[in-house]
# Entry
Amino acid sequence: MNFVEILRFAIRGLTANKLRSALTTLGLMIGVAAVILLVAVGSGASAAIEQSIAGLGTNVLTVSRAGGQGAVTRPLTVQDAQALLDPRGAPDVKASSPVVSTSVTAVYGGTSYDIPQLVGTYPEYFTTSNSVVANGTAFTADDVSNGRKVMVLGATVAQELFPGQDPVGKQVLANSIQFTVIGVLESKGSSGLNNADDTAIAPLTAVQNSLAGYGSINQILVQAQSADAMSAAQAEVTAILTARHRIAANQNPDFRILSQEQLLATRTTATDTFTVLLASVAAISLLVGGIGVTNIMLVTVTERIREIGIRKAIGAPKFAILGQFLTEATLLSLFGGALGVAAGVIGSQFTIAGIKPVVVPGSILLAFGVSALIGLFFGSYPAGRAASLRPIEALRHD
# Structure
């Protein structure tokens, strides 16, 4: 019996019970699609985070509050940010922007919208954070000095509060405090985990005076003279803040400094772990599908014992019976795997939980390959059992 005949018998066996074959195929399809889709979601999250962080530029340092055992507990202040502009102590620092952020409810006319992040800062923040004003203007140092209540809106906030209108020149109430909209930022897009357009920026003094209160700040955004000067700028910032906060050699600093590369590496590591977790969960689906193949093939062998006995009695060799049932299991796996690949790729075209999945070709090859191996591995026991039946015993089976 050649391979073509074995294949023909295998197909005949599968089509004899279409519902059972369809259910087995469905289980494998779900497993393969889950692997492809969940890995794509993880990769999409990584790509979105990388794009979001890269949008801040390659020469930006973020100074934020930190603590720990033995740490001095002094807050970051506006004076700290201003001290970083010392041309002698920090010649590699180009700009330093203190940042205070708070959430507010903005109201215009009969429309209300919760802005998750209202940033109070200096004009240099626009350049440092790569925030481009697409309509109107940014505020100036004079606006900061005089505490003028002006505001630049992110693209999402502008759309929510002023659908189909030009926001520039309009009056907005932020927690019942009136601000004048003077500009709208160019859209940066959403990372899925964080919408960079769902923000607003105002002069630091106006935000502190009206909304956040005076005192400590959330962070300091530092721009180095160039990407090549990042290491030198970070060392200078560390030295200045260590001296200002009177941190001894045996004490942990109460601040931390992250470059965009460090921030990207940290978040990428977390996202990679998340992706591995998703892939592991999906792999369980494939394993369950494989167990389903075993169960279905065992039932098939049991139902067809008399057929096996007849075929062996008329001279069918052991390898033909073994090959037939292995081929049946493999065909189920290959067909289920192909459907799973199609379902996974199609599903990846849609945004999931705010994340645009990115299909990883390696996950397709891996999932399809594992699906095929599942047919061989989990189908080997039922196939071996069928091939080992003695003709006399098989013919006597009811």
